[in-house]
User: Fold these one by one.
Assistant:
Number 1:
Amino acid sequence: MSAGHQHTGERHDAAPTEDLVGIGFGPANLALAIAIEEHNAQCGPGRALRSVFTERQPEFGWHRGMLLAGATMQVSFLKDLATMRDPGSRFTFLRYLHERGRLADFINQKSFFPSRVEFHDYLRWCAGTVEQRVRYSRETYAVRPVRTDGRVDTLEVHTRPAGGGTPEDGTDETILRARNVIIGTGLRPRLPEGVATGPHIWHSRDLLFRSQEARAAARPHRRFVVLGAGQSAAETAEYLHREFPEAEICAVFTRYGYSPADDSPFANRIFDPSAVDDFYEAPDEVKQSLMDNHANTNYSVVDGELIDQLYRTVYQEKVAGTERLRILRTTELAGIEEIPDGVRVVVRSLTSGERHPLDCDAIVMATGYRSQDPRELLGPLADECLTDDRGRLRIGRDHRVATTERVGAGIYVQGAAAEHTHGITSSLLSTLAVRSGEICDALLLGLAGQDLLSGRADRAGGTVDTADGVAVPAP
Ligand code: FDA
């Protein structure tokens, strides 16, 4: 479809209206695509959901810059995209292992925690089965209402090639129409105030790519600084120490030491699907205390084994008199300045107040991620969304954003942007299987309520409509 539509008045073009357009195709919306796929494969005539997803990456990728050799998942393989909703699903991690011919080998490892590289391969395997529904290399930059007599029952999702541009400068815009949208755009890298990434200032998100470039530069690397005390920071310090055997690694953080993630069984219940109900129903002050009390299951904490490994390294280097992994505790970043072939990082001790310059090849900001407010994409539609007394989106238990009565179209949000309503699992993988089933059910209910599912000929004789409107055999 071409650009330049009016966003008001009735639309008469031929673009099909999808039941759902998903924005972002990370694990969260992938899990939903699978739930929809499974629903479509077994539903009765006229009950299939038509969905399309947009993703700015050229192909499926899950934190590719942190697929470090040896890094393992922080979640049991049983919390894959399907098992907790339906252990008999064809999208389980066990089914994946069986298809890859590694089921027995995996079992012999006696571990619940696959490597991150393997889990990424599992996610890609899942994504491959719904590929026809995904528009890769397309960035969604706006969701606009289509108003008919003041009501909004259809939304337009505006996409462009990843990398930006506008229709005015000739960029190829595509507009998808939908009864419902779901925003699952994940997290954005967080950087210290006033700091931007560059050739010598990296975010941990890009660690593998930037360090490969650094290695290709074929000059000796003397020093790296890693800022942060969470899992990514500890992994980055360990990785750089291993991959650059000539370099000194300075781990800088304001804590006194790395703190272990609480993965004990009672605390781990905070990641159960039922914990989402408990959190959702709790008063605001209880929500806050749950987040405070259990932040150490996820935020600014490190896997215990990795802490032990790093400590052993520090100690052994002390014994050998070659201290290459240096822990600069209770220390903050006080300044960064470019120098030839690197950066001068100034750090300040919080105890003595002393400042020290550290000239290094690169500083890695392992400073975490921040949530993106979905309203950034919604433009004028944001005014139709209801908020709580702190100005945050009101999001239903089914992940649908509460709107004025003028809006009949569904705006759903999942991921970190729903943490204030749905709790600590929102940004994680733990409840994706169950959550995606809940959202799929909510979509069906909403469409049935508007009588939009009846009279469809979208599934007959063992065929299912694809996003392109092409009938393919049902799986
Ligand atoms: P995610 O960020 O993964 O995906 C969002 C997608 O949307 C991306 O593919 C992005 O390109 C796309 N996108 C964004 N804006 C767009 C736009 N405007 N248009 C089109 N596309 C757009 N959790 C856990 O439970 N167990 C674990 O072991 C780990 N491990 C882990 C390791 C590392 C290194 C990190 C950084 C994080 C984890 N996590 C984790 C947490 C992590 O948030 C979680 O695993 C998922 O990535 C969350 O999936 P989402 O789909 O919500 O976001």
Number 2:
Amino acid sequence: MSKGRLICVSNRIPSGPNPSGGLVVALHDTLLETGGIWIGTSGKLAETAGNALHEVEGGPFRRMAFDLTEQEQENYYFGFSNQVLWPLFHGRTDLMEIHAEYLSAYKDVNRRLAKMLIDVIEPDDRIWVHDYHLLPLALYLRQAGAKNRIGFFLHTPFPTPLALQAMPNAPEVCEWLSNYEVVGMQAERDARACIASMIELGGGEELAGGFVQLNNRQCRIAAFPVAIDATEFRTLAESEVDKLPRGIVKPERRLMIGVDRLDYTKGVPQRFKAFGEFLERHEEWHRHVSMLQISPPTREGVEAYDNIREETELLSGQINGRYADIQWAPIRFINRPVPRETLAGLYRASDVALVTPLMDGMNLVAKEFIAAQDPADPGVLILSQFAGAAEQMPDAVIVNPHDTEQMATAIMTSLAMPLVDRKRRHAALMETIVKKDVSWWSKGFRTALG
Ligand code: ADQ
């Protein structure tokens, strides 16, 4: 690897004096070793758009930030990023809100950031750009004269060429990507879709080894599945499970858990319907199983998010209304965040996890649940075939989240699964997530970046 610093750029800088989370931990050492910097928006709003990054004091590594204006937040963040790109990249073209001012604000914020970055970067620095908010950043950095090696990692899925055409500027997206040396995707399916788009819509030429040539530039597109620190998470779960409040775990009742931001991509209503179907079919399980769904709100104020909240509340209310009695409510729906330590303990105390997104880049909850299990008596992971994690985790119980009957059967299979099968599946899954952990992910991408 070269001697330069690692410059990480993402929409938001990690917050607080002790930022946590797998991504931050994975990049922490490299940032410190290379004297690197994490750059992104501050989370605060400014009256006018500034033209310089400011230092953010107090963190374990150097951070620099800029403030969005209220209009930029509306059009670049809530608008183009979260009402065009997010639904499009998750197969929900019906939820896209296409407006010219969204796209122009998106480009303007990326251009403004590129200009501010130019004043900070040095020729040897490697730049690692994260996620869909910043797709055109390399193009604008090149236009401002940057010759650095620049990599991009997409945390979401990538659409097929057909779906990508729902965007007003699909060929432009290919041009944006061609300005990176490396484009990292979560899964092989996404890398294939991206290469196909670069060729079919961007007019690129496929070369050997996952390289695409476009506009006289060569860009490598490959899968780098994002991961967790499985060993650290296992230790956390072991120590936290005994600290859970009394009454959460009952000897006579099995616990199923779901943990997702309340996002329409996560398939929570479909999951509730499948649980309802299971209860309809299996009266013998009434009072002997309950589902804990933990879903903090996200992107509040965007209509599609308000709708998903209403739909989820309605469904859990209907199922509880139909089946609950004075001792038992089948679903507990918690609409707020839960501390990471408590989550770890809850995963370990659960018999089954339902990770059933309609579409997901990776899904770290699937990996956290497996890491948290007691290998001598592990729980069962029910995993959607549409989570990127399904490529790496074939020993989960794989389901189609649109198929209510199949999911109801999977719930029954998982609750009744013999110990020997649970142990075999868990051991295979654990081996993968320990071997391919967050350091493996970060090192793999940085090596490809050079
Ligand atoms: P997300 O869509 O946020 O991430 P996910 O991968 O599941 O989805 O990560 C969520 C993280 O938040 C997990 O670490 C989880 O423990 C935590 N979390 C979830 N609900 C919580 C709650 N109620 N309280 C506290 N913590 C909670 C995006 C992509 C994913 C991709 C990741 C990383 O959409 O596909 O896996 O980035 O690349």
